[in-house]
Hints:
The chain is about 30% helix and about 20% strand. By secondary structure, it is α/β, with parallel strands linked by helices.
Amino acid sequence: MSNKKIKYYVVWSGTVPGIYDSWAECQKHIHGIEGAKYKSFETKAEAEFAYKGKPGDFIQKNANGAKTTDKNKSGSKKGINYDSISVDAACSGNPGLMEYQGVNTKTKELIFHQGPFPLGTNNIGEFLAIVHALALFKRQENNQTPIYTDSITAMGWVKKKKAKTNLVQNAKTKALYDLIERAEKWLEVNTYGNPILKWDTVNWGEIPADFGRK
């Protein structure tokens, strides 16, 4: 039996847009197609989420339309919008002691930090961090600066305005659940224009907000 890991390929623009579970099948729909837009993902859930979104949120390109994942002469990685905030969460165990933060993507200067909470998960932390950044930008009347996250799950929760967590509810998690409820209510009554973008860890390395505890 083969141990080869399956990848999922999203084709946004090609002969037949869709999600494919082999490179050979993907190629059939992009070969020879000028401007074809496609990308591989590690899981089907990631691919399904990406397919519902805009290609530009997942495929980073330069002004000439070429994929840019290398570094320029200054050491900056091409394809990254450095005029942005990056968010991340850290969890000692999952669930476990959790905290989250947001930093300046270019300088890694700390912009906000919350926690630690006695019991939480990485996805909850990422969700709260994104909403924290959105609320911060709302107060600043800034609807343009992007927010980077490396959690597709959290991006989906924000889009649906609901944290789909199974974390136990007890005395240890009460304060965290209160914060989750506030974040969900904020999403229900507020609009925002700030792009929420997936950080390309494979090509760019760890997100600048990473706590460095891996």
